[in-house]
Amino acid sequence: MARLTVNGQAHNVDVDPNTPLLWVLREQIGLTGTKYGCGIAQCGACTVHMDGVATRSCSVPVSVAEGKQIVTIEGLAQGGVLHKVQKAWIEHDVPQCGYCQSGMIMAVAELLKNKPKPTDADIDAGITNICRCGTFVQVRAAIHAAASA
Amino acid sequence: MNYVPKMNRRAFVASAAAAGGGLALGLDIPIGGPQPILAQDGSPEVNAWVVVRPDNTVVVRVARAEMGQGSLTGLVQLVAEELDCDWSTVRWETPTPGQNVARKRAWGDYATVGSRAIRQSQEYVRKGGATAREMLIEAAANEWKVPASECSAANSVITHKPSGRTTTYGKVAMAAAKLEPPKDPKLKDPKDWKIAGKPLKRLDTADKVTGKQVYSMDVKLPGMLSAAIKESPVFGGKLKSFDAAKVAGMPGVKKVVQSGDAAVAVVADTWWQAKTALEALPIVWDDGPNAKVSSASIAEMLKAGLDAPEAFVGNQQGDAKDAIAKAAKKVEAVYSYPYQNHATMEPMNATARYTPDKCEVWSSSQNGEAAFAAASEASGLPAEKCDFHNTILGGGFGRRARSEYVSHAVRIAKEMPGTPIKLIKSREDDTANGVYHPITQCKLIGGLDANNELTGLHVRISGQSILAAVNPRGLQDGRDPITFQGMYPGGTEGAIGYTIPNLLIDHAMRNPPIPPWFWRGVNNNQNAIYLECFMDELAHAAGQDPLEFRRKLMTKHPKHLAVLNAVAERVDWDKPAPQGVYRGLAQQMGYGSYVAAAAEISVTGGNKIKIHRIVGATNCGHAVNPAQIDRQVAGSFVYGLSALFYGECTVKDGRIEQTNFHNYNSMRIAEMPKVESIIMPSGDFWGGVGEPTIFVAAPAVLNAYFAATGKRIRSIPLKNHDISLV
Question: Which one, of B207, B197, B204, B158, lies nearest residue B56 by Cα?
Answer without folding.
Answer: B158
